[in-house]
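Input C-alpha cells:
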C-alpha cells in the first residue's frame, strides 16, 4: 500500500511539473531564436548602411577644394594628400597633373594606375576622398540665416531651407526659385513652399546639385 502511495505521489508531481518544464523549455527556445533574429537583423542593417555609404562614395563626383588621400602600396614616397585645385587638377609624383574634378574616385584611381605603370609596374593605388569641400549650395533672400553651405550629404530644397534657418516672416514662400548652372546654361526650378509642406506637388522638392542657388523672395 505504501509503495502504491509513493508511486501515485510521484506521478502527481511529474504531472504538475512537466507543463512548467515544457513551457520553460519553449521560453528558452523562443528567447534564443529571438536573440538570433535580432542579431541577424542588426547585421543586415549594418551591412545595408555600409553598402549605402559605399555606393555614395563610388558615385560621388570629385570637385574643386576636395582633399584626396592617395598612396601606392609598398611605396611611401608615393603617398600624398592632394587638394583639388580650382581648375579641377591635382599634381602627383611621376605622372604630373591629372584632371580630378568631374570624376568619381574609382575613375580617377583607374586612370592614375594606368599612368603609374610606366614607372611602377603593377602599381596598386589607393585613393580616398578624405574631405568634401566642393559640395556647396547657396540659400539667399528672406531666410533667417542666408549664406553658403558646405554639404556632406545630398539634401533637397526643404532641407536646404531648414539649414538656412527657415523662411522669415516676410518671405513669399510661393515664389521660391532654384537656379542651376550647367556649363553655360542656367535652369530655373520653381518651388512653392506652402504646397510642398501641405503635401502637394512634392516633385518640386528636388535634390540640390553642387553650386545650386536657392532664392527666397
Amino acid at each position: 500500500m505504501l509503495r502504491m502511495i509513493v508511486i501515485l505521489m510521484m506521478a502527481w508531481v511529474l504531472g504538475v511539473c512537466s507543463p512548467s518544464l515544457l513551457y520553460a523549455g519553449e521560453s528558452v527556445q523562443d528567447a534564443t531564436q529571438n536573440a538570433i533574429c535580432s542579431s541577424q537583423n542588426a547585421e543586415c542593417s549594418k551591412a545595408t548602411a555600409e553598402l549605402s555609404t559605399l555606393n555614395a562614395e563610388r558615385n560621388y563626383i570629385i570637385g574643386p577644394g576636395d582633399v584626396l588621400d592617395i598612396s601606392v602600396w609598398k611605396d611611401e614616397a608615393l603617398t600624398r594628400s592632394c587638394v583639388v585645385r580650382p581648375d579641377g587638377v591635382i599634381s602627383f609624383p611621376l605622372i604630373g597633373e591629372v584632371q580630378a574634378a568631374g570624376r568619381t574616385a574609382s575613375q580617377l584611381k583607374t586612370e592614375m594606375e594606368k599612368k603609374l605603370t610606366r614607372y611602377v609596374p603593377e602599381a596598386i593605388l589607393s585613393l580616398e576622398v578624405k574631405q568634401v569641400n566642393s559640395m556647396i549650395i547657396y540659400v539667399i533672400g528672406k531666410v533667417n540665416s542666408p549664406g553658403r553651405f558646405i554639404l556632406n550629404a545630398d539634401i533637397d530644397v526643404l532641407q536646404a531651407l531648414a539649414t538656412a534657418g527657415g523662411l522669415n516672416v516676410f518671405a513669399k514662400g510661393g515664389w521660391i526659385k532654384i537656379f542651376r548652372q550647367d556649363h553655360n546654361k542656367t535652369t530655373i526650378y520653381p518651388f512653392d513652399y506652402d504646397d510642398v509642406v501641405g503635401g502637394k506637388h512634392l516633385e518640386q522638392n528636388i535634390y540640390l546639385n553642387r553650386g545650386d542657388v536657392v532664392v527666397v523672395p
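The chain has a mean pLDDT of 81. The first strand starts at residue 67 and ends at 72.
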